[in-house]
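Objective 1b: paired records.
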Amino acid sequence: MGKQAHRPLVVWSAISVLATSSAIFGASLIGVLFVYNEPRAFHIQPTLLLVVMPLIGLIGLMRQKLWGREVSLLSIASLWAFILGGFWSIFGAKPIAEFRMTTLTVSTFLFLITLLLLLPGLFARLRWGISSREFFGD
């Protein structure tokens, strides 16, 4: 770790996922603060978790710290669980026959399925990938 190492593609992918998710959930946190007159802790805590934890992981990844990778892995796992819960609340409670598949519904469905399939792969490559382990000196 003494010399400057080339940042692998999996690290850049994790950085982009963490930055994007943090920006999206940061905007929703601002929305929660403006919608509710007296925001309660149960309104703010999940969103705050999905904003602060990726930012901490992002800083750690940029500084090539091992703790940054671990926090990033926790953030990616939390994001996956949050997306899975959202997917289940939107699409899981109703039978497929009840949906009127508009263009927005189809694109949302496909986007969520894509994220649910790609995030575990990113998690695995960041945690156990050879390039990631070499980059962090693991």
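Objective 1b, second protein:
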Amino acid sequence: MGMTQTMIAEAVNNEHPSVYAPTTVPLNLTFRNGTKITGYFDSSPQSDELKKENKYTFIELKNVENYKEHKSSEYMTIVEGDQLTDITYAQ
């Protein structure tokens, strides 16, 4: 089992749970297969539809500058909550 929307939201911001709650520090996401990515959850026009499938839009650190400049979904990663095992703040 991966992480539900509630589990993800509480890991992002326990005081104001939301997957897309603003954060000042990047998040480390760990997946069931052991891979890790670092970056920020960010909402997009497709977020509401993706949420129904426990999927969320995420901007990896390597894509942050391009995303800020172009605001294009090509720089977003779709994260499947069912594949997540842990979320922590990057140090």
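The chain is about 20% helix and 30% strand. Residues 5-13+23-89 form a domain with the SH3 type barrels. fold (CATH 2.30.30.100).
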